[in-house]
Amino acid sequence: MLRGVNAQKTVRKRLPSPKKRLCKVHGKPIRPSYWLAGHRNTGCSECYRTTEVPPPRKRLCKQHGRPILRSRWWSGYRSKGCVLCFKVPPPGKRLCRKHKLPISPSTWRNGRHSTGCSRCHNSRPGYLLAKERYKKRLRKSTKARKKSR
Ligand SMILES: [Zn+2]
Ligand SMILES: [Zn+2]
Ligand SMILES: [Zn+2]
């Protein structure tokens, strides 16, 4: 039995051996998908890992034991930066510049300290008006269609 004689022909883009596609940064083979996408200098498993955020259990804040926020992890924090690290000030000290209402805690933690109160979140006049206009247009077009038939 002839094994694998034509196997290579079916692969359109051939990969060089792992030893010939090493990452310049880590010295590990560049992942096939990266290689095929055109990466020649970086893209090994190590490169990939540094851009990933580990599961919450593996990125605990050393001070509070709570998972470090993704955005913090991304910006390079590895030992501090959980929810408790960002103490939200009392409502009176985090007022929305537009509405003079307290900014919601989650918004505050995300780094928005000037706007983002409950009214900001609920009243989006632009969006509501657009929706209204869309509804009207929809009603009109269905009527027109019925008449023409
Ligand atoms: Zn690498
Ligand atoms: Zn913390
Ligand atoms: Zn507001």
Structure description:
The chain is mostly helical. The protein has three domains: 13-51, no CATH class; 54-86, no CATH class; 88-141, no CATH class. The protein is 37% helix and 0% strand. It has seven helices and no strands. It is flat, with a radius of gyration of 27 Å. The mean pLDDT is 81.
Summarize the structure.
The protein has 149 residues and is mainly alpha-helical. The protein folds into three domains: 13-51, no CATH class; 54-86, no CATH class; 88-141, no CATH class. The chain contains seven helices and no strands.
Task: List its salient traits.
binds zinc ion; 3 domains; 149 residues; mainly alpha
Taken together, the total number of domains comes to 3
How helix-rich are the residues, as a percent range?
Answer: 25-40%
Bound molecules: zinc ion
Instruction: Enumerate how many helices there are, as a single number.
Output: 7
- The number of E-state strands comes to 0
Helix/strand-derived category reads mainly alpha
Query: What percent of residues are in strands?
Result: under 5%
Largest sheet: none
Uncertain spans: none
Distance between the termini: 69 Å
Shape: flat
Overall mean confidence score, pLDDT = 81
Order of helices and strands: HHHHHHH
Radius of gyration over alpha carbons? Answer: 27 Å
